[in-house]
Write a structure and sequence with these properties.
By secondary structure, this protein is an all-alpha fold. Helix content is 97%, strand content 0%.
């Protein structure tokens, strides 16, 4: 390699280092300029994370309440069914009592008719 080749190589390396230094300086300026915006974004991400955690907690509470509601609904359905059965039995007993009362009234009426 000649001195001229070495000089060109060294000039090339110096040029590349200068370009690299300019690029690094520009990146540092951008970092400094963007720092407030990045800080605001970090705050926003933190708020989003907090909101997400609250939503997850609310979803868990809602699931628990729905499970409890399903259990309560099942119990109410069972009790309603029992109540309907009891009401049917009561209606049948009432019909039977009405029939017996009607029969008693008929007997009393017939007895009065014979007494007169």
């Amino acid at each position: 390699m000649t001195n001229e080749d070495r000089q060109r190589t060294m000039d090339f390396i110096v040029q590349q280092q200068a370009k690299f230094a300019v690029s690094m300086e520009r990146l540092e300026e951008e970092r400094i300029r963007d720092q407030p915006r990045l800080a605001a974004l970090e705050k926003s991400y933190k708020r989003i994370e907090d909101v997400f955690q609250r939503l997850v907690a609310l979803a868990e509470i809602t699931d628990w309440r729905l499970d409890r509601l399903e259990t309560t609904t099942s119990v109410l359905e069972t009790k309603t069914s029992a109540l309907e059965t009891n009401m049917a039995a009561l209606a049948a007993a009432q019909r039977h009592a009405d029939e017996r009362l009607s029969a008693l009234i008929d007997i009393v009426i017939q007895d009065r008719g014979k007494s007169s």
